[in-house]
Design goal:
Shape: globular
Mean pLDDT: 91
Number of strands: 37
Strand order of the largest sheet: 3-2-1-4-11-12
Number of helices: 16
Strand content: 25-35%
Structural class: alpha+beta
Distance between the termini: 43 Å
Largest sheet: 6 strands, mixed
Radius of gyration: 26 Å
Low-confidence stretches: none
Helix content: 25-40%
């Protein structure tokens, strides 16, 4: 039987097929069909000669949530808030994107005031009921909500993270009185303190809930009609998979499902190769996503943003910049060369696509300097036009008094610097030396930049994984069932606080075992856990996640771990200052799929030759096909290794070797 991972993006749909019995991988890339997503999936499967009745595991990731929120195409949402907190969504946090731009307009509230309703109730900060819900008042509020129009309702009551009883009562009464409305509770989405962030994330979730549920239902029906007879699994932003029911209930957890797939694949592939510390670099058409993996675990955050609004769900910590294969090069008013964030996208695309694009992009630069072969199609879909790329390059080069080669090299140099800065933000700025990590590039353009990035960062090992152009879809196949839980504690970091942690963790573990059994079919004895305690020094308004193997035996042990974690992150610790426990976060995992990779058998052929342009002018380079490289084969740089969907540039002073798992390991001499 087969396992399939499908990453549906705005432009392309990537399909990965894995056969456990033979460790065979097959990949296909098709143009996405937004009106009928299943059509692109079926086209990809047809290319690979795969029938759905041969498949027993299907994992899917999508940009639908992200696109809907970025485009503002989600449903309008009615909000029910505690009396006195109606305007939290409009007040926000008082932050300005540009600190000294006093006239800058803030983001509009996620729900206009006419759709924000107040309920006379109050839960205290300790979870006690300060003011009970009046049933008559609740009915009147819910009737106003129904009359307002929107089907989506977000119930966001004060301190519901400590006691969700009032929110649940409102949801139950709404289901009785107005069953056509779809209710989302803030205590289900973000059971943490921080009213604005909790309210905003809940409204974002509510705005796309119906859309995503309908989409997943339609996709499941189409796959079943095609012969697929097993549950559909969905990739989440935390790097795990959940059921379609869970994904439809909490679609905000899918916002980073595509990039998280690449991180999940990196954890798996790097682990097989024996590299627990990795920096990933996913370079696509519009952006570059980088993530740091330490001791086999990616850095995580609950401080994300989407469309400028807070997203407090637990997610892989990914730093994104607007520099990718389609990023446009331009001259600013000061006469400097800039790259991105504007992108040529897929239409018209880079000039080399021959679809009417006239502005030079990073892809055009790679083609002009010889990294890409104009005789090959890009990803099997797009033929490259080098004449069009040179014309676009020459037009901008004339403004700088350069020729097209000099400009192309300059574009790649600036792109490398931007990507290097993004990597430093998640490594050096967080107390990690990038030289202690292996760089793992993927995405269509990632391996072309790899050795240049590594040289800038002082990294001496680069691991290019199998199928780098479809790597996120591969991550869907390697991902395990995962659910994340958080409970607010708010206690001093002493023995009483530690006792509260023990109680909360025991409760969350019981909940997790039951949920994985019910939704994912995972037996309780197969569930494993990850645990962190959110802590801060007294007086701080933010907390730091402190990873622990289990609940510490003593409070002193917990505080010592907090101090060392804090010092690693911020380079100092206030060791004499009292500490507080803010929350506990538990991650529950199902068994990890056993996925291994059969390296290419290799085929005897003569290496090709080409020339690539760099800082020292033209240099002769070897050209190899990756499918022709068996384990143990070495390729000294400068060289270009080509494969379907991606190209690896091996810089001068680097040597590429194929390992036993089919990775290309590039080592600096």
């Amino acid at each position: 039987m087969l396992c399939i991972g499908v990453d549906i993006g705005g432009t392309f749909t990537d399909v990965i097929v894995y056969e456990p019995a033979t460790a065979r991988l097959a990949e296909a890339k098709t143009l996405s069909t937004p009106d009928d997503p299943a059509a692109a999936i079926f086209e990809g499967l047809a290319k690979l000669g795969v029938r759905l009745d041969e498949v027993d595991r299907f994992v899917h990731g999508t940009t639908r949530v992200t696109n809907a929120l970025l485009e503002g195409s989600g449903e309008p949402v009615s909000v029910v808030a505690t009396e006195g907190f109606r305007d939290v969504l409009e007040m926000g946090l008082g932050h300005r994107p540009q600190l000294y731009s006093v006239k800058e307009a803030g983001r509009p509230p996620l729900a206009p005031r006419r759709l924000r309703h107040v309920l006379r109730e109050r839960i205290g900060a300790d979870g006690s009921v300060v003011r009970a819900v009046d049933p008559a008042d609740l009915d009147a509020v819910l009737d106003r909500v129904a009359a307002a129009g929107p089907r989506a309702v977000a119930v966001c009551l004060l301190h519901s993270y400590r006691n969700p009883a009032h929110e649940r009562a409102a949801a139950a009464r709404l289901a009785e009185r107005h069953p056509g409305l779809i209710c989302t509770l803030s205590s289900d989405v973000v059971p943490e303190q921080g009213e604005y962030e909790r309210f905003a994330t809940t409204v974002l979730n509510a705005s796309v809930r119906s859309t995503v549920a309908d989409y997943l239902r339609g996709l499941g029906t189409a796959l079943a009609a095609g012969g697929y007879a097993h549950p559909l699994s969905i990739m989440t932003s935390s790097g795990g998979v959940v059921s379609t029911d869970e994904a439809g209930r909490l679609p905000i957890n899918l916002a980073l499902s595509g990039p998280a797939g690449g991180v999940a694949a990196s954890v798996h592939v790097a682990g097989l190769a024996g590299y627990p510390n990795v920096i990933t670099c996913d370079i696509g058409g519009t952006s570059t996503d980088v993530c740091l993996i330490k001791n086999g675990t990616p850095l995580m955050t609950n401080d994300g943003k989407i469309a400028g609004y807070p997203n407090r769900t637990f997610q892989v910590e990914i730093n994104t910049i607007g520099a990718g294969g389609g990023s446009i090069a331009w001259r600013d008013v000061g006469g400097e060369l800039r790259i991105g964030p504007r992108s040529a996208g897929s239409t018209p695309g880079p000039a080399a696509y021959g679809r009417g694009g006239t502005e030079p992009t990073t892809t055009d630069a790679h083609l002009v300097v010889g990294h890409l072969d104009p005789q090959e199609s890009l990803g099997g879909e797009v033929r490259l036009d080098i004449a069009a790329a040179r014309t676009a390059m020459s037009r901008l080069a004339a403004e700088f008094g350069l020729d097209d080669l000099e400009l192309a090299h300059g574009i790649l140099t600036i792109a490398t610097v931007k990507m290097t800065s993004a990597i430093k933000e998640i490594s050096v700025a967080c107390g990690h030396d990038p030289r202690d990590f292996v760089l793992m590039p993927f995405g269509g353009a990632g391996p072309m930049h790899a050795t240049a990035l590594a040289d800038e960062l002082g990294i001496r090992r680069v691991l290019v994984p199998p199928v780098p152009g479809n790597f996120s879809a591969l991550g869907f196949v390697t991902a395990q069932a995962r659910h994340d839980y958080v409970r607010t504690v708010l206690a001093p970091a002493d023995e009483s606080g530690l006792a509260a942690v023990r109680d909360v963790v025991a409760e969350m573990r019981d909940t997790a075992r039951a949920q994985l059994k019910a939704e994912d079919g995972v037996e309780p004895h197969d569930v494993t856990f990850g645990l962190s305690v959110g802590m801060r020094f007294r007086g701080q308004s933010f907390d730091l996640a402190v990873p622990v193997q289990d609940v510490p035996v003593t409070a002193e042990e917990l505080v010592e771990t907090f101090h060392s974690t804090y010092a690693e992150r911020y380079a100092y610790a206030r060791s004499g200052h009292p500490a507080e426990i803010v929350n506990c976060r538990l991650t529950a995992f199902g068994p990890r799929p056993s996925v291994r990779f059969a390296p290419p058998a290799g085929a005897a052929s003569q290496p090709g030759r080409t020339r690539i342009y760099g800082a020292d002018g033209w240099a002769d380079a070897t050209v190899r096909r990756r499918t022709e490289l068996a384990p143990g084969c070495t390729v000294p740089g400068p060289a270009v290794v080509r494969e379907n969907g991606s190209t690896t540039v091996v810089g001068a002073g680097w040597t590429a070797t194929v390992d036993d798992h089919g990775n290309l390991l590039l080592v600096k001499e």
